[in-house]
Amino acid sequence: MNAPALTVSQVRYVNKAFWRNPESAFFTFAFPLMFLVIFTALLGHSTVHLGTRIINTSTYYVAAMASFAVISACFTNIAISVSFQRDSGVLKRINGTPLPSTVYVAARIVHALLIAVLLVIITTAFGRLFYSAAIPTGLTLLRFAVMVVVGAAAFCALGMAMTVVIPNGDAAAAIVNATILPLLFLSGIFIPLGSNAPAWILWIAKIFPVWHFARGMQAGFIGTAYHWTDVLIVAVWGLAGLLVAARFFSWEPRNR
Known about the structure:
single chain; mainly alpha; two-stranded antiparallel sheet; globular
């Protein structure tokens, strides 16, 4: 069996394993919608200034939670689940089979990307149905799709790279959340960053890919300016994550 066929077969296996853990699958899909409802209930009756535009907060949060959904499905889930599989010896057993390691990694990334796209579709439909959020069309839809795919792939690679610094499965959730949650706040995912935001917060946020990914997603939903530099920066971070994972990724449990 050639590599593409093996990858497709492995994606099916990863998908079965994903849905056989219903609690994890449920919260992967529920969290973005739950946060969308909570934030719009608390802040949805106000407006947000994005450059020269003034938009309703509920529309802003549809774009923000779509971004959060991709990051959660790709970065958070991969980093935590792969760390647990390594700690329990699953990765060691997989590495001892004829399955090429590149096929396993590709299958994990492809599956996470598919879940991310499904989450974006669900979040968009939910936002359209309950908050009359705009849906990207035409050229905007194409640019939006590019950002979704590049962002999902980049955060998958960064999730694999994050396993390098996670010592064991028990520490995975704490380390991953401590890494991503501050960036979600600094990048305006949970709290809109208006013109009054301190300059140092914006300076720090622009270093990391979350801010650029969120801005690209906003362009699709809200119609703000689309910058290809945002796509490039997210892609560079993804490439860096891929290189780190290729060099330091471990298939065996770490010594405690």
